[in-house]
C-alpha cells in the first residue's frame, strides 16, 4: 500500500514538473509586448518640403525639462524661383523657435512658436523706363514674421512630421526698383520704378501661410 502511494506521488510530481516545463516557453511566447515607444531621442535632423521654405534643412533638440516637452528648433533654406516670366527671385529662409509637445516623450501633437526671416532678392529683367527704354533692376526686401504652428511628429528613429500654421508680419505690396538701361543714342538711363511684389509661395498681403512635410532621423 505504501509503495503504491509513493509511486502515485512520484507520478503526480513528475507530471506537474513536466507540465511546468512545457508551459514556460508557451507563456513566454504569448506574453504581450508593449509596442508603445517611450524612448526619447534628444537630437533630430531632417528636411522639410513646403512653403515658404520650399526645400530646406531642420534641426531640433529636445530639452530634458518638463518631461521632454520643450524642443528648440532651427529651419534654414535657400532657393531660386522664377516668380514671373521676367522676374527672378533668390530667397533664403531662416526660422528659430521652440516646439511644445503635448506628450511627455516628444512625439505626437505639438504647438510651435518662433520668428522667421525671409530674405528676398528680386531681379526685374524687363522694366519700362523713360522714352521707351527697356532696362533691368534688382531690389532686396526682408520679410520678418512671428510664426504660430500646429504639428504632429511620428515616433521612431526615422520620423515624419507635418506642420500647418501662419506667420504674422507686414508684407509690402510694392517695391521700389532702381532700373537702368541703354537708350538708342547710347546714353545710360536710370530711373526708380515702382513694381508690385512678385508672388511667392505662401506669402499674401497679411502674412505667410505655413505648410510643410518633413522627414528625418533622431539620435
Structural category: mainly beta
- Average of per-residue pLDDT values: 84
Low-confidence stretches: 1-19, 21-35
Total of helices: 1
SSE map:
Elements: H1 2-30, E1 43-51, E2 54-61, E3 70-84, E4 87-101, E5 108-128, E6 134-153, E7 158-168, E8 174-182, E9 188-196, E10 207-218
Antiparallel strand pairs: 1-2, 1-10, 2-3, 3-4, 4-5, 5-6, 6-7, 6-8, 7-10, 8-9
What is the compact description of this entry?
Helices cover 13% and strands 59% of the residues.
Give an account of the 3D structure.
By secondary structure, this protein is mainly beta. It has a single domain (43-218), classed as Porin (Beta Barrel). The protein contains one helix and ten strands. The chain has an eight-stranded antiparallel β-barrel. A hairpin with a 5-residue loop joins strand 8 (174-182) and strand 9 (188-196). The N and C termini lie far apart (71 Å).
Structure characteristics:
59% strand, mainly beta, Porin, disordered N terminus, 10 strands
